Amino acid sequence: PKRVRIRHFLNAKREGVPITGLTSYDMLTAQIFDEAGMDFLLVGDSAGNNVFGYDTTLPVTVDDLIPLTRAVAGAVKRALVIADMPFGSYEGGAEEALHTAVRFMKEARAHAVKLEGGERSRQQIRRIVSAGIPVMGHVGFTPQSEHGLGGHIIQGRGDAAETLIKDALAVQDAGAFAIVLEMVPATVAAEVTKRLEIPTIGVGAGPHVDGQLLVWTDFAGMGAGRVPKFVRQYADVRGILTDAVRRYKDDVASGAYPAPEHSYE
Ligand code: KIV
Ligand code: NA
Q: What atom of ligand 1 comes closest to residue 114's alpha carbon?
Protein backbone atom coordinates (compact mmCIF):
# COMPACT_ATOMS: atom_id res chain seq x y z
CA PRO A 1 0.00 0.00 0.00
CA LYS A 2 1.06 3.58 -0.62
CA ARG A 3 2.17 5.33 2.55
CA VAL A 4 0.01 8.11 3.95
CA ARG A 5 1.86 11.42 3.74
CA ILE A 6 0.99 14.82 5.12
CA ARG A 7 -0.22 15.93 1.69
CA HIS A 8 -2.89 13.22 1.93
CA PHE A 9 -4.17 14.91 5.08
CA LEU A 10 -4.50 18.23 3.27
CA ASN A 11 -6.06 16.58 0.19
CA ALA A 12 -8.51 14.66 2.39
CA LYS A 13 -9.78 17.91 3.88
CA ARG A 14 -10.16 19.53 0.46
CA GLU A 15 -12.00 16.49 -0.88
CA GLY A 16 -14.12 16.02 2.24
CA VAL A 17 -12.79 12.51 2.95
CA PRO A 18 -12.71 11.90 6.73
CA ILE A 19 -9.35 10.94 8.26
CA THR A 20 -9.33 8.21 10.92
CA GLY A 21 -6.72 7.41 13.55
CA LEU A 22 -6.14 5.46 16.74
CA THR A 23 -3.46 5.47 19.36
CA SER A 24 -1.07 2.51 19.40
CA TYR A 25 1.77 1.64 21.75
CA ASP A 26 3.09 -1.66 20.39
CA MET A 27 3.82 -3.73 17.30
CA LEU A 28 0.76 -6.00 17.35
CA THR A 29 -1.91 -3.32 17.64
CA ALA A 30 -0.02 -1.19 15.11
CA GLN A 31 -0.06 -4.06 12.62
CA ILE A 32 -3.79 -4.70 13.16
CA PHE A 33 -4.84 -1.05 12.98
CA ASP A 34 -2.66 -0.39 9.93
CA GLU A 35 -3.96 -3.41 8.02
CA ALA A 36 -7.54 -2.47 8.91
CA GLY A 37 -7.09 0.92 7.28
CA MET A 38 -6.19 3.54 9.88
CA ASP A 39 -4.71 6.63 8.20
CA PHE A 40 -2.52 7.47 11.16
CA LEU A 41 -1.40 5.98 14.46
CA LEU A 42 -0.54 8.21 17.39
CA VAL A 43 1.96 6.89 19.89
CA GLY A 44 0.30 9.01 22.55
CA ASP A 45 1.66 9.96 25.93
CA SER A 46 -1.64 8.35 26.98
CA ALA A 47 0.77 5.41 27.23
CA GLY A 48 1.24 6.86 30.71
CA ASN A 49 -2.25 5.65 31.59
CA ASN A 50 -2.50 2.67 29.25
CA VAL A 51 0.97 1.13 29.32
CA PHE A 52 2.87 2.43 32.33
CA GLY A 53 0.01 2.60 34.81
CA TYR A 54 0.30 6.27 35.82
CA ASP A 55 -2.85 8.26 36.58
CA THR A 56 -1.83 11.16 34.31
CA THR A 57 0.43 11.70 31.29
CA LEU A 58 2.73 14.00 33.26
CA PRO A 59 5.42 11.49 34.36
CA VAL A 60 5.92 10.12 30.82
CA THR A 61 9.38 10.76 29.35
CA VAL A 62 10.89 10.76 25.87
CA ASP A 63 12.91 7.67 26.86
CA ASP A 64 9.62 5.94 27.76
CA LEU A 65 8.04 6.68 24.39
CA ILE A 66 10.94 6.06 22.03
CA PRO A 67 10.86 2.24 22.21
CA LEU A 68 7.07 2.22 21.83
CA THR A 69 7.26 4.54 18.84
CA ARG A 70 9.98 2.42 17.26
CA ALA A 71 7.79 -0.67 17.61
CA VAL A 72 4.79 1.06 16.01
CA ALA A 73 6.79 2.68 13.19
CA GLY A 74 8.42 -0.65 12.39
CA ALA A 75 5.06 -2.41 12.14
CA VAL A 76 3.11 -0.21 9.73
CA LYS A 77 3.09 -0.34 5.97
CA ARG A 78 0.66 2.50 5.25
CA ALA A 79 -0.33 4.59 8.27
CA LEU A 80 1.43 7.82 9.22
CA VAL A 81 3.06 7.32 12.62
CA ILE A 82 2.95 10.35 14.90
CA ALA A 83 5.04 10.53 18.08
CA ASP A 84 3.56 12.49 20.98
CA MET A 85 6.04 14.85 22.62
CA PRO A 86 5.67 14.33 26.39
CA PHE A 87 5.39 16.95 29.13
CA GLY A 88 8.72 18.63 29.81
CA SER A 89 10.25 17.87 26.42
CA TYR A 90 9.40 21.06 24.52
CA GLU A 91 8.02 23.82 26.78
CA GLY A 92 11.54 25.22 27.34
CA GLY A 93 11.73 26.67 23.86
CA ALA A 94 12.27 26.06 20.18
CA GLU A 95 15.66 24.37 20.50
CA GLU A 96 14.48 21.97 23.20
CA ALA A 97 11.45 21.14 21.06
CA LEU A 98 13.59 20.52 17.99
CA HIS A 99 15.96 18.31 19.98
CA THR A 100 13.03 16.15 21.14
CA ALA A 101 11.47 15.97 17.70
CA VAL A 102 14.78 14.92 16.14
CA ARG A 103 15.12 12.12 18.70
CA PHE A 104 11.70 10.74 17.73
CA MET A 105 12.51 10.90 14.02
CA LYS A 106 16.03 9.48 14.33
CA GLU A 107 15.84 6.97 17.18
CA ALA A 108 12.23 5.85 16.71
CA ARG A 109 11.72 6.52 12.99
CA ALA A 110 8.46 8.39 13.53
CA HIS A 111 6.96 10.20 10.55
CA ALA A 112 5.71 13.24 12.47
CA VAL A 113 5.42 14.60 16.00
CA LYS A 114 2.57 16.08 18.03
CA LEU A 115 2.73 18.65 20.79
CA GLU A 116 0.16 20.44 22.91
CA GLY A 117 -0.67 24.14 23.02
CA GLY A 118 -1.73 26.95 20.68
CA GLU A 119 -0.14 30.39 20.84
CA ARG A 120 2.25 29.24 23.59
CA SER A 121 3.75 26.56 21.33
CA ARG A 122 4.04 28.69 18.18
CA GLN A 123 7.87 29.04 18.22
CA GLN A 124 8.34 25.35 18.96
CA ILE A 125 6.13 24.26 16.06
CA ARG A 126 7.79 26.70 13.66
CA ARG A 127 11.30 25.50 14.57
CA ILE A 128 10.45 21.79 14.19
CA VAL A 129 8.66 22.34 10.88
CA SER A 130 11.60 24.38 9.57
CA ALA A 131 13.79 21.32 10.13
CA GLY A 132 11.56 19.29 7.82
CA ILE A 133 9.63 17.47 10.52
CA PRO A 134 5.81 17.47 10.21
CA VAL A 135 3.98 18.67 13.32
CA MET A 136 0.44 17.93 14.47
CA GLY A 137 -0.95 20.52 16.90
CA HIS A 138 -3.28 19.83 19.83
CA VAL A 139 -5.62 22.37 21.43
CA GLY A 140 -8.78 22.32 23.53
CA PHE A 141 -8.35 20.05 26.54
CA THR A 142 -4.62 19.37 26.73
CA PRO A 143 -3.99 16.63 29.32
CA GLN A 144 -0.43 17.77 30.06
CA SER A 145 -1.91 20.98 31.53
CA GLU A 146 -4.63 19.21 33.47
CA HIS A 147 -3.55 20.83 36.76
CA GLY A 148 -3.39 24.30 35.20
CA LEU A 149 -6.80 23.83 33.59
CA GLY A 150 -8.30 22.50 36.82
CA GLY A 151 -9.26 19.01 35.73
CA HIS A 152 -10.78 17.24 32.74
CA ILE A 153 -12.87 20.18 31.59
CA ILE A 154 -14.42 20.93 28.21
CA GLN A 155 -12.53 23.83 26.61
CA GLY A 156 -13.69 26.67 24.39
CA ARG A 157 -17.14 27.21 25.90
CA GLY A 158 -18.66 30.70 25.79
CA ASP A 159 -16.09 33.50 25.61
CA ALA A 160 -13.25 30.96 25.55
CA ALA A 161 -14.25 30.02 21.99
CA GLU A 162 -12.42 33.07 20.57
CA THR A 163 -9.20 32.11 22.39
CA LEU A 164 -9.48 28.55 21.13
CA ILE A 165 -9.92 29.74 17.54
CA LYS A 166 -6.90 32.06 17.92
CA ASP A 167 -4.84 29.18 19.30
CA ALA A 168 -5.83 26.94 16.39
CA LEU A 169 -4.93 29.68 13.90
CA ALA A 170 -1.53 30.13 15.62
CA VAL A 171 -0.85 26.40 15.21
CA GLN A 172 -1.73 26.57 11.52
CA ASP A 173 0.31 29.76 11.05
CA ALA A 174 3.33 28.07 12.65
CA GLY A 175 3.21 25.39 9.96
CA ALA A 176 1.42 22.38 11.48
CA PHE A 177 -0.12 19.94 8.97
CA ALA A 178 -3.13 19.06 11.16
CA ILE A 179 -4.54 19.82 14.60
CA VAL A 180 -6.22 17.76 17.29
CA LEU A 181 -9.25 19.34 18.97
CA GLU A 182 -9.86 17.56 22.26
CA MET A 183 -13.07 17.95 24.27
CA VAL A 184 -14.48 21.11 22.70
CA PRO A 185 -18.15 21.87 21.93
CA ALA A 186 -19.23 20.59 18.52
CA THR A 187 -20.23 24.06 17.33
CA VAL A 188 -16.83 25.51 18.22
CA ALA A 189 -15.03 22.59 16.53
CA ALA A 190 -17.17 23.22 13.43
CA GLU A 191 -16.16 26.88 13.43
CA VAL A 192 -12.45 26.04 13.82
CA THR A 193 -12.74 23.49 11.01
CA LYS A 194 -14.28 26.11 8.73
CA ARG A 195 -11.64 28.72 9.57
CA LEU A 196 -8.60 26.44 9.08
CA GLU A 197 -7.05 25.13 5.88
CA ILE A 198 -5.34 22.28 7.72
CA PRO A 199 -7.50 19.33 8.82
CA THR A 200 -8.97 19.21 12.32
CA ILE A 201 -8.90 15.85 14.08
CA GLY A 202 -11.54 15.55 16.77
CA VAL A 203 -11.34 13.69 20.06
CA GLY A 204 -14.64 14.51 21.70
CA ALA A 205 -15.19 17.42 19.31
CA GLY A 206 -18.36 16.27 17.55
CA PRO A 207 -18.95 15.35 13.91
CA HIS A 208 -18.09 18.63 12.13
CA VAL A 209 -14.33 18.07 11.95
CA ASP A 210 -12.07 16.60 9.27
CA GLY A 211 -11.16 13.42 11.11
CA GLN A 212 -11.46 11.42 14.31
CA LEU A 213 -8.99 9.97 16.79
CA LEU A 214 -9.66 7.62 19.69
CA VAL A 215 -7.47 6.07 22.34
CA TRP A 216 -7.45 2.40 21.35
CA THR A 217 -7.91 0.99 24.84
CA ASP A 218 -11.09 3.11 25.14
CA PHE A 219 -12.49 2.29 21.71
CA ALA A 220 -11.84 -1.47 22.09
CA GLY A 221 -13.05 -1.85 25.68
CA MET A 222 -9.63 -2.85 26.97
CA GLY A 223 -9.48 -0.65 30.06
CA ALA A 224 -11.09 -1.26 33.45
CA GLY A 225 -12.34 2.27 34.10
CA ARG A 226 -15.16 4.36 32.72
CA VAL A 227 -14.62 5.81 29.27
CA PRO A 228 -15.44 9.43 28.41
CA LYS A 229 -18.90 10.25 27.02
CA PHE A 230 -17.50 10.88 23.54
CA VAL A 231 -16.16 7.32 23.12
CA ARG A 232 -18.06 4.62 21.24
CA GLN A 233 -16.84 1.20 22.36
CA TYR A 234 -16.45 -0.97 19.28
CA ALA A 235 -15.41 -4.14 21.09
CA ASP A 236 -15.15 -5.75 24.51
CA VAL A 237 -11.55 -6.90 24.32
CA ARG A 238 -11.22 -6.90 28.11
CA GLY A 239 -14.24 -9.20 28.37
CA ILE A 240 -12.93 -11.52 25.65
CA LEU A 241 -9.51 -11.81 27.31
CA THR A 242 -10.97 -12.26 30.78
CA ASP A 243 -13.17 -15.08 29.51
CA ALA A 244 -10.24 -16.71 27.69
CA VAL A 245 -8.05 -16.57 30.80
CA ARG A 246 -10.81 -18.12 32.96
CA ARG A 247 -11.41 -20.95 30.50
CA TYR A 248 -7.67 -21.64 30.29
CA LYS A 249 -7.41 -21.83 34.08
CA ASP A 250 -10.47 -24.09 34.27
CA ASP A 251 -9.11 -26.38 31.55
CA VAL A 252 -5.78 -26.73 33.32
CA ALA A 253 -7.61 -27.43 36.58
CA SER A 254 -9.82 -30.09 34.99
CA GLY A 255 -7.07 -31.66 32.88
CA ALA A 256 -8.82 -30.70 29.60
CA TYR A 257 -5.70 -28.80 28.56
CA PRO A 258 -3.22 -29.83 27.29
CA ALA A 259 -4.93 -32.51 25.18
CA PRO A 260 -3.03 -35.22 23.26
CA GLU A 261 -2.80 -32.97 20.15
CA HIS A 262 -0.88 -30.40 22.18
CA SER A 263 1.76 -32.90 23.27
CA TYR A 264 5.00 -34.01 21.55
CA GLU A 265 5.67 -37.72 21.01
O1 KIV B 1 -1.95 10.85 24.10
C2 KIV B 1 -3.01 10.74 23.46
O3 KIV B 1 -3.60 9.66 23.31
C4 KIV B 1 -3.54 11.97 22.83
C5 KIV B 1 -4.85 11.94 22.15
C6 KIV B 1 -5.98 11.56 23.03
C7 KIV B 1 -5.13 13.24 21.50
O8 KIV B 1 -2.89 12.97 22.89
NA1 NA C 1 -1.21 13.01 24.34
A: 8
Any bridge partners for residue 140, and if so which? 182
Q: Is the dihedral of CA 31, 34, 38, 40 positive or negative?
A: positive
Of 96, 182, 197, 261, which is the active-site residue? 182
Residues in a beta bridge with 90: none
- Tens digit of each residue's pLDDT (9 = 90 or more) over 62-89: 999 999 999 999 999 999 999 999 999 9
* 234 belongs to a structural domain: no
Q: Nearest C-alpha to atom 1 of ligand 1 is from which residue?
A: 44
CATH number (domain holding residue 142)? 3.20.20.60
Nearest of 78, 188, 174, 186 to residue 135 by alpha carbon: 174
Those residues with Cβ within 8 angstroms of residue 245's Cβ, 6 or more apart along the chain or in another chain: none
- Give the Å distance between the CA of 84 and the centre of ligand 2: 6
Q: Domain residues for 115?
A: 6-219
The torsion angles phi and psi of 230, rounded to 5 degrees, stand at: -80, -5
pTM of the model: 0.98
Side chain identity, residue 260: P
pLDDT at 133: 98
Ligand 2: centre distance to CA 180 (Å): 10
